[in-house]
Design brief:
The protein has 114 residues and is mainly α. The chain is 71% helix and 4% strand. A two-stranded antiparallel ribbon has the order 1-2.
């Protein structure tokens, strides 16, 4: 079970390392003042990311070093997301098992029946 938890931690680290965007505060209104600001910014960021992937430069049907780097980063990001998604059921089952064991121990300590 610890391998699963370690895999999730690693995937989180990879996910964080793959994001190259740095938050800027210039000319941005806080989300409290404009509740749509966050969702609009996220939609715009996704569009820019996919546009960069779609328009990756190729020379003579081979990717340029810039395109290779962009595509590698996307591959690492997709792998990290997939690892995280595949690990969720295992972590959920572990948490349910731990919660059930805790409940049973508590009931037995009080002298109750299951």
């Amino acid at each position: 079970m610890y391998k699963t938890i370690i895999a999730i931690m690693i995937s989180g680290a990879v996910l964080a390392a793959c994001t190259n965007e740095t938050p800027t505060t210039e000319n941005q209104t806080p989300a409290a003042e404009n509740p749509k600001a966050t969702s609009e910014n996220l939609m715009h960021a996704d569009t820019d990311r996919y546009k960069a992937l779609a328009e990756a430069p190729f020379v003579n049907d081979y990717p340029t070093p810039e395109a290779t780097r962009t595509l590698d980063e996307e591959l690492y990001f997709q792998r990290a997301v997939q690892t995280y998604l595949w690990a969720l059921p295992a972590v959920n089952m572990h948490a349910m098992k731990e919660g059930q064991a805790k409940y049973v121990r508590r009931r037995l300590q009080r002298g109750g029946h299951l």
